[in-house]
Amino acid sequence: MEKKKLYIKTYGCQMNVYDTERMVDVMAPEGYMETDTPEDADLVVLNTCHIREKAAEKVYSDIGRIRKMKDTKKKDGEEMVLAVGGCVAQAEGAEIMKRAPVVDMVFGPQTYHNLPDMVNQSLSLKSQGEKSRILDTGLAVDEKFDQLSKKDVKKKATAFLTIQEGCDKFCTFCVVPYTRGAEFSRSIEDLVKDAEKLAKAGVVEVTLLGQNVNAFHGVSENGEEWRLPQLIRRLAKIDGFERIRYTTSHPHDMTDELLKVHGDLKECMPYLHLPVQAGSDRILKAMNRTHDSASYKDIIRDLRKERPDIAISGDFIVGFPGETDEDFKETMELVRDVKYAQAYSFKYSPRPGTPAAEMDDQVEENIKSERLSRLQALLKQQQADFNNSVIGKTLSVLIEGKGKAEDAVFGRSPYMQAVQVKVGADKVEELQGKIVDVKINGANTFYIEGILA
After folding, report:
1. Burial per residue of 402-433, b for 16 or more beta-carbon CB atoms within 10 angstroms, e otherwise
2. Which residues contact 264 (CB under 8 A, 6 or more apart)?
3. Domains within the chain, CATH numbers bracketed
4. What is the predicted pLDDT for the residue at 146?
5. Contact predicate 49/55, CB 8 Å
6. What phi and psi values does residue 271 have, to the nearest 5 degrees?
7. What tens digit of pLDDT does each residue of 227-271 get?
8. Which residues contact 182 (CB under 8 A, 6 or more apart)?
9. pLDDT tens track for 20-49
10. pLDDT tens digit sequence for 301-317
11. What is the value of pTM for the model shown?
């Protein structure tokens, strides 16, 4: 089979990273091998995300750059197929086809299992001298997972496993319910089969993914409904899995049983990403978040009773419509109360089609910028404090790759900290994919350092 080259640019969240890996898997039997550069690729896929500000405009900018590469290949008698996938494609598929004629295919996040057929159809149309204008934005998520479960898994130490997609929460700022669809949870049988494949491929750390992962409610073989705690306990029994993580969670679905899993299972890592978005109850209500600041802090308190050393991560939106100085002050107070190990924070930006985009009391950009700067300074200090707190401790670190120096490797601590480890040049290759004990002797805001214990 003639080898062809595939280039995928991945925007946004971990779910998109997972989707990109699966696209590589489905195209491999078609003779496509990954390349790091788009210039010589036969198939270019822009796997888009609609969460970040001006997401669509960034995609059009990339389309413009790739068009020049596509024209160059055409002059040399070669074809490049350009596809736009992901959430921007789902939300604005028809507009992309209209605005960017150079794009051959547009497909949503629930249809990429059909990528081989779409590519073959595109090439067939081109060979007949016709334009390739393929649009597929269906939401048949169950069909997608049926197809993906049949694929083999590459040998690796870490992996994502999507267990749930879509969301029924309808936060007023969020496009996910419109781009990923309603909540869908995979069956326990399928998940266990996929997890066992990962373990056999050498995966020691698996991250369970979902837009609202702790809302998972999969059906077991005997027809019982399992929630996330039961699934984690079952996966922890798979030989080879030493670390289990899950993301992203919603406070509404943090049950007592799920908190207990963190205290009971050594495989469940002491790290939780639990977005709160704001500290003001008035703003949380306007966001339709279904929790308030007190209930969020109660969850953190109860979680720390189960696992005192747990690292908490969060998300914050600054400048949501109607946010006052007092509302922002309450967000800062919540951050000081919780003490985050790391967090992500953004200025609010309207997403077309969401209720918040239509609200009248939009906050001025200069005010949003000033508030974000203050919040990020506090979060940065808290992250540095957390990293400094592990100096002198010995942590288990999963080595994921080579470090910045020739005699160093890079890994992750149980708390999701990035770790640079001095090991000696002769051990760099040997330690890849292994969990080793590391004595931490240095730290800064963004990573910690150590030596083999």
Report:
1. ebeeeebbbbbbbbbbbbbbbbeeebbeebeb
2. none
3. 4-138 (3.40.50.12160), 142-388 (3.80.30.20), 394-452 (2.40.50.140)
4. 64
5. yes
6. -150, 135
7. 999 999 999 999 999 999 999 999 999 999 999 999 999 999 999
8. 166, 167, 168
9. 988 888 898 889 999 999 998 999 999 988
10. 999 999 999 999 999 99
11. 0.84
Best CA proximity match to 319, nearest among 286, 295, 291: 286
Residue segments in the chain with a per-residue pLDDT below the cut of 70: 1-2, 51-54, 139-153
In terms of phi and psi (left: phi > 0; alpha: psi -120 to 50; beta: otherwise), the region of 129 is: left
Q: Are 81 and 105 in contact (CB under 8 A)?
A: yes
DSSP 248: -
Mapped onto helix, strand or coil, the DSSP state of residue 316 is strand
d(CA 39, CA 335): 45
Decide if 262 contacts 307 (C-beta within 8 A): yes
CB-facing half-sphere around the CA of 260: CA atoms within 13 A: 7
Q: What angle do CA 102, 108, 109 make, to 5 degrees?
A: 130
Cα→Cα distances 364→239, 351, 367, 397, Å:
54, 16, 5, 44
Cβ atoms 146, 99 nearer than 8 A: no
Q: Report how far residue 404's alpha carbon sits from residue 410's, in angstroms, rounded to the nearest whole number.
A: 8
The bridge status of strand 43-48 relative to strand 4-10 is parallel
Model confidence pLDDT, tens digit, residues 163-175: 998 899 999 999 8
Written as six digits, the tokens of 59 are 């995609």
Query: DSSP secondary structure string, 164-214?
Result: EE--S---TT--HHHHT-S-EE--HHHHHHHHHHHHHTT--EEEEE-TTGG
Give me the amino acid identity at 363. Answer: V
Read off the amino acid at residue 374. R
Name the strands in the sheet holding 243-247, side by side, starting at the edge strand that comes first in the sequence. Answer: 158-162, 205-209, 243-247
d(C-alpha 101, C-alpha 71), whole Å: 13
List 420's β-bridge partners, or say none: 410, 449
